[in-house]
TrEMBL record:
This is Orotidine 5'-phosphate decarboxylase. GO terms for molecular function: orotidine-5'-phosphate decarboxylase activity. InterPro entries: Aldolase_TIM, OMPdecase_type-2, OMPdeCOase_dom, RibuloseP-bd_barrel. Residues 16-254 form the Orotidine 5'-phosphate decarboxylase domain. SMART domains: OMPdecase (SM00934). The gene is pyrF. The keyword S-adenosyl-L-methionine does not apply. Belongs to the OMP decarboxylase family. Type 2 subfamily. Its EC number is 4.1.1.23. Keywords: Decarboxylase, Lyase, Pyrimidine biosynthesis. It holds the Pfam family OMPdecase. It catalyses: orotidine 5'-phosphate + H(+) = UMP + CO2.
């Protein structure tokens, strides 16, 4: 999917919601456990109930890898279901990969070609030659960790290197990478006050913003400091939507949570004349 197609979807749906498919067998409703593939059954019900309210889905691969080959099959079924039934959805594999060049190329093939995701999260720590292999895939997006939502982000990301915070160096230096047009960045909703500085460096780049919901980040603050002329935000919520109910009404409850977030997003877009 091109970035313009993503912007068109956001405007059509009045939503920049990304739903995180962090599907945990310990948390899904008990009546699904005896299904042949409980993870896929849960995901399918969530997707069918929420697709009109969001523009992206983000399975975090840890939740699939944790169950071995069966978990990987659930991930394959989920991305195939999305691509076959809702091709307008922007799909993100949250895998936080990145390695020496030839290995990065294999990761890129796994997620962009084999599984056919639109985007993949990448750790920038190994630098240019670990990131550029991902950027050479046309209409595929590399989402680089810039300033993450967790407390440990302050261990390294905000430390100064030759006078500049490391996360700013990640943003600045990555702009010179070959294929940088395919870059997006992760910025945690819990770090919303940093977004003004971030927008000075990457004024229109898309930002994937996790941390609204279970981690306590504020949607309003993210919009206040981070929204750009092309909107440029995908705000993720996983647990806050997926586990709104542990009963048979889980999909309806997830839909209600997604609707609440979509309505707030619509308000934020309308008050800035971005629709
Ligand atoms: O900085 C980051 C980067 C990634 N994540 C991931 O996003 C979701 C958030 O889930 P919630 O349940 O909405 O808290 C999860 O997959 C994280 O691994 C992040 O939270 N922060």
């Amino acid at each position: 999917m091109t970035t313009q197609e993503l912007v068109d979807q956001i405007q059509k749906k009045k939503s920049f919601l990304c739903i995180g498919l962090d599907t945990d067998l310990d948390k899904i409703p008990s009546h699904l456990i005896n299904e042949e593939d409980p993870i896929f059954s849960f995901n399918k019900a969530i997707i069918d109930a929420t697709h009109h309210l969001c523009v992206a889905y983000k399975p975090n691969v840890a939740f699939y890898e944790a169950y071995g080959i069966e978990g990987w099959k659930s991930l394959e079924r989920t991305i195939k279901y999305l691509n076959d039934n809702y091709p307008e959805q922007f799909t993100i594999a949250d895998a936080k990969r990145g390695d020496i060049g030839n290995t990065s190329t294999r990761y890129a093939k796994a997620f962009f070609e084999n599984l056919n995701f639109d985007a993949l999260t990448i750790a920038p720590y190994m630098g240019r030659d670990s990131v550029e292999p991902f950027l050479s895939f046309e209409n595929k997006h590399t989402i680089l960790l810039a300033l993450t939502s967790n407390a440990g982000a302050f261990d390294f990301q905000t430390k100064k290197v030759e006078g500049t915070e490391l996360y700013k160096e990640v943003l600045k230096i990555s702009k010179s990478y070959k294929g940088a047009d395919n870059l997006m960045y992760v910025v945690g909703a819990t770090k919303a006050e940093y977004l003004t500085k971030i927008r000075e460096i990457v004024p229109t780049s898309f930002l994937l913003v996790p941390g609204v919901g279970a981690q306590g980040g504020s949607l309003e603050a993210v919009c206040k400091y981070g929204i750009s002329s092309n909107i440029g935000l995908l705000i993720n919520s996983s647990r806050g939507i997926l586990y709104a109910s542990s009963g048979k009404d889980f999909a309806e409850a997830a839909q209600e949570k997604a609707l609440q977030l979509q309505s707030k997003m619509q308000e934020e877009l309308e008050k800035r004349n971005l629709l």
